[in-house]
């Protein structure tokens, strides 16, 4: 017999399958010897009161064993010799597009400017040691995209765009823990996700698809307003390659050279709002104490605590973003003269720090800076019009902030930082707490040099968060600048039904880089949808 139960347990009672079975025996009148196995269908933590509970939905197998796996297996046929589809980018959007193309009987040709997930680790380690950034292999560019080494969180607020469970099943099939199917905030961890991504690549190759690393798209090949392929360059040899087929463009939110190319080629894009701010780092013990209402912190049976804050300040949202309990702050620049920070957590979320982005909503109409326009014209040799600037002005604003941050950091990857309460009270920080940010911190008056429409809103937001969560606003926390890569600064316009570019046939803008996703799961969903629309296009 199979029976499902909804349970509300203390953390110790929920700590293992055996303890859950013992609870079922005591509270539901079951004979523990007859419960052969259980599956956790749903798990969440309720920390709203001083007594912490774990909510579980459990499937109990009584006098029988599970007859199937915990996840649904996907069949990937051999597609060697089938029609080609070019997938530009091997982040979550591109990888899931490629896998879905194989399901649909098409052959994906994956083009990735960065290195494979193993080799790019060397380039990322060099950022902390040498303070130099490889513009084609870093925390954003390379196999797996930005998510591969910046946490692997798999939850999304969007429930309307596609089959989220399918995305999680694919991850499980390629080696992710099955706990992601039940956790309310599923998370693989930056130490485990690279192996999962490598397994996904191997599935593509074993099924007859092709994957090319260190190969950067230089331009789209167009024939009468239809994309028929791409021209690419092999970065280590300089070899030029032509790849023919419709194109799924999944380059991620930091491929600024792609945005410039599209603007120059008059392929329709528009500016899109983003969020900009800082990484806020607390001692993880302090966040545990606050969120679990206990001076002892999380204790033995609870995970590192998470938080989520949001407020409205002067007509713009101020909110926490990409919270990383028990994690690290990492350098995420993609080129010279930039400082960009992001956050990640290993699977055990076991470091002594917890961080999150603390960001302010920025809309295109908020950016009207004549200095930016002049810098844009100088960069373009005065060949571009104000129309081009308007299209890319949010991107230029990102670049300006990142360069200011680099200058404040002594023109290295040393990040400018300030204690949280000092920032709120417009005071200098004469020293800084210890930090997980490996390239190092330098004390800097963020309240003074950040644009006032960002700093003043952050200050007011922090005051509100401190009132609702006693102890959160503290000088034991550090603001590390600057967080700018929350989403794409442009939207590559496409039809909502066919997902094809509104102006250029055969081009399917995809994922975060196209402005239609926000995170690993939603990018994966969008990649699958683009693959399905590409299949219909080929059959038409």
Provide a descriptive summary of the structure in words:
Helices cover 30% and strands 24% of the residues. It has helices at 17-28, 92-103, 120-130, 145-148, 164-173, 193-206, 256-264, 284-292, 370-379, 386-408, 420-424, 446-449, 452-468, 520-539, and strands at residues 2-9, 35-46, 53-62, 84-88, 107-111, 210-212, 215-222, 227-234, 240-244, 247-249, 269-271, 274-283, 310-313, 316-324, 328-331, 341-344, 353-362, 415-419, 441-443, 478-483, 490-492, 507-509. The strands form 6 sheets. Strands 13-14-17-12-20-18-19 form a 7-stranded mixed beta sheet. Strands 6-5-4-10-22 form a 5-stranded parallel beta sheet, with helices on one face.
Got a strand count? Answer: 22
Major sheet description: 7 strands, mixed
Proportion in β-strands? 15-25%
Poorly predicted segments: none
Rg computed from alpha carbons, rounded to a whole number of angstroms: 24 Å
Average of per-residue pLDDT values: 93
Can you describe this structure in just a few lines?
The chain is of the alpha+beta class and 540 residues long. The chain contains 14 helices and 22 strands. The chain has helices at 17-28, 92-103, 120-130, 145-148, 164-173, 193-206, 256-264, 284-292, 370-379, 386-408, 420-424, 446-449, 452-468, 520-539; strands spanning 2-9, 35-46, 53-62, 84-88, 107-111, 210-212, 215-222, 227-234, 240-244, 247-249, 269-271, 274-283, 310-313, 316-324, 328-331, 341-344, 353-362, 415-419, 441-443, 478-483, 490-492, 507-509.
């Amino acid at each position: 017999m199979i029976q499902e139960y909804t349970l509300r347990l203390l953390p110790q009672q929920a700590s293992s399958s055996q303890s859950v079975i013992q609870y079922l025996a005591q509270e539901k009148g079951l004979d523990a010897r007859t419960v052969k196995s259980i599956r956790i269908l749903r798990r969440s933590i309720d920390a709203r009161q001083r007594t912490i509970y774990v909510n579980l939905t459990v499937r109990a197998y009584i006098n029988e064993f599970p007859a199937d796996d915990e996840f649904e297996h996907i069949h990937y046929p051999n597609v060697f010799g089938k029609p080609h589809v070019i997938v530009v980018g091997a982040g979550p959007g591109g990888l899931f597009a490629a896998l879905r193309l194989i399901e649909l009987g098409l052959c994906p040709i994956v083009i990735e400017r960065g290195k494979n997930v193993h080799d790019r680790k060397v380039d990322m380690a060099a950022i902390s040691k040498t303070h130099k950034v490889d513009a084609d292999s870093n925390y954003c560019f390379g196999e797996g995209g930005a998510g591969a080494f910046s946490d692997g969180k798999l939850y999304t607020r969007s429930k309307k765009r596609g089959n989220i469970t399918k995305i999680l099943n694919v991850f499980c099939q390629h080696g992710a823990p099955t706990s992601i199917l039940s956790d309310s905030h599923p998370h693989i961890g930056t130490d485990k996700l690279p192996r999962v991504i490598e397994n996904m690549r191997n599935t593509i190759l074993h099924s007859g698809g092709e994957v090319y690393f260190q190969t950067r798209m230089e331009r789209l090949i167009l024939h009468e307003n239809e994309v028929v392929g791409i021209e690419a360059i092999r970065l280590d040899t300089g070899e030029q390659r032509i790849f023919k087929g419709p194109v799924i463009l999944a380059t991620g939110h930091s491929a600024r050279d792609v945005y410039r190319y599209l603007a120059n080629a008059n392929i329709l894009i528009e500016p899109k709002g983003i969020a900009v701010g800082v990484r806020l780092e607390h001692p993880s013990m302090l966040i545990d104490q606050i969120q679990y209402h206990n001076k002892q912190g999380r204790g033995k049976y609870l995970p590192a605590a998470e938080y989520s804050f949001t407020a409205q300040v002067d007509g713009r949202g101020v909110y926490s973003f990409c919270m990383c309990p028990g994690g690290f702050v990492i350098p995420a620049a993609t080129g010279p003269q930039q400082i960009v920070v992001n956050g990640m957590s290993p699977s055990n979320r076991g470091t002594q720090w917890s961080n999150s982005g603390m960001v302010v909503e920025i809309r295109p109409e908020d950016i009207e800076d004549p200095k930016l326009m002049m810098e844009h014209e100088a960069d373009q040799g005065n060949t571009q019009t104000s129309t081009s600037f308007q299209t890319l002005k949010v991107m230029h604003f990102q670049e300006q902030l990142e360069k200011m941050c680099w200058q404040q950091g002594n023109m290295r990857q040393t990040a400018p930082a300030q204690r949280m309460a000092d920032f709120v009270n417009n005071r200098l920080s004469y020293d800084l707490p210890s930090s997980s940010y490996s390239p190092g911190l330098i004390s800097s008056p963020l309240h003074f040099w950040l644009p006032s429409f960002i700093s003043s809103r952050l200050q007011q937001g922090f005051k509100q968060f401190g009132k609702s969560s006693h102890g959160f606003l503290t000088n034991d926390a550090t603001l590390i600048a600057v967080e700018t890569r929350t989403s794409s600064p442009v939207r590559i316009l496409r039809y909502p039904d066919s997902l094809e570019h509104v102006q250029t046939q055969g081009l399917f803008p995809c994922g975060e880089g196209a402005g239609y996703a926000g995170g690993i799961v939603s990018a994966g969903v969008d990649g699958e949808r683009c693959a399905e629309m590409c299949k219909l296009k080929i059959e038409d």
